[in-house]
Amino acid sequence: MAAASTLQILFKPYKSSRNPYHNPRRNYSRFMCSVASQSTPKSYKITLIPGDGIGPEVISVAKETLQLVASQEGIQLQFHEVLLGGAALDSTGVPLPDETLSAARQSDAVLLGAIGGYKWDKNEKHLKPETGLLELRAGLGVFANLRPATVLPQLADSSTLKKEIAEAVDIMVVRELTGGIYFGKPRGFGTNDNGEEIGFNTEVYSSSEVDRIARVAFEIARKRRGKLCSVDKANVLEASMFWRKRVTKIASDYPDVELSHMYADNAAMQLIRDPKQFDTIVTNNVFGDILSDEASMLTGSIGMLPSASIGESGPGLFEPIHGSAPDIAGQDKANPLATVLSAAMLLRYGLGQEQAAQRIETAVLETLNKGFRTGDLFSTGKNNMSRRKRY
Length: 391
Known about the structure:
Layout: E1 7-10, E2 30-33, E3 43-51, H1 55-73, E4 76-81, H2 86-92, H3 98-105, E5 109-114, H4 129-140, E6 142-150, H5 163-166, E7 170-176, E8 188-191, E9 197-200, H6 207-223, E10 227-232, H7 238-251, E11 258-263, H8 264-273, E12 280-283, H9 285-296, E13 306-311, E14 316-320, H10 337-350, H11 354-369, E15 372-373, E16 383-384
Parallel strand pairs: 3-4, 3-5, 5-14, 7-12, 10-11, 10-12, 15-16
Antiparallel strand pairs: 1-2, 6-7, 6-13, 8-9, 13-14
Helix pairs in contact: 1-10, 1-11, 6-7, 8-9, 10-11
């Protein structure tokens, strides 16, 4: 089966379930390949990118999980592993080999472990592992990054906040992924009129870039609790003033969604003070990068959070939001659940296999119910487990 020709938004309510990921209270939406709504062969090409650090370890567990679920659901998955980031630099001299981008584009979905590490920190920008990831996202045309932050009942005590503040938190951060200051030009180094060295970047967004991410966020909010908070710095940044103007304009098409605006610094504070006030958050690339990492700590560990990056055409990119953690790589300590849950998002959003996705999520919940924890979640009275423990 070739990669989907079009990736479009299909809005369907959750089925009633006791699984917290599928709480009918949310009436949450799904993104799926257009082909997923049609009668298609259950055979898919999955590009695996282990990457660096703990990436190969967590991808190994996710692959094993996908294989097991595929056998239970009668799905055929063809896996192809490629290089990205530091591993690609060491092998080919570039962070994103042509073979990797070609394989990713020809697949139905891409699952990534993690990239980066101390070894390559001093490389020039074009030879940094992170550059390869940015180029991969751009090459796939993914622009919407979905990052759920749900505090599961089993992990409410693991949150860095008091239980009464953290419990029942259920936030979806919708981050614009391919625009803004990470990609804006001009950028670089130079000297100012006084002869001092300077570094500079440019935050720039077009109307089409803001409009499309806003629509994604409004559609998601519509199927959740009908509340959307747009985060910007419109009090000081022209790019944010423009962002707010466009989001407000799009809001007229969604009268059933309550839109609010919040400055990024206040949003960072409110996520700690009263996180339950948020339902769906939409924001630009750099603010989304920061705020989604902050939101991750509400859940107890960044090792629990998956993400999906999707575009208007071609395969989606699914990855945990944690880094490569080179300090624990190879020690069997890494929490694989964010990658396993990313695999569930891959099944749901990338392949349209809802039942298979729910199988994985239910297995994760049952593992937590039994008291098993990796080191990042470990607490007194629980059973410490390695990444290889079958769940």
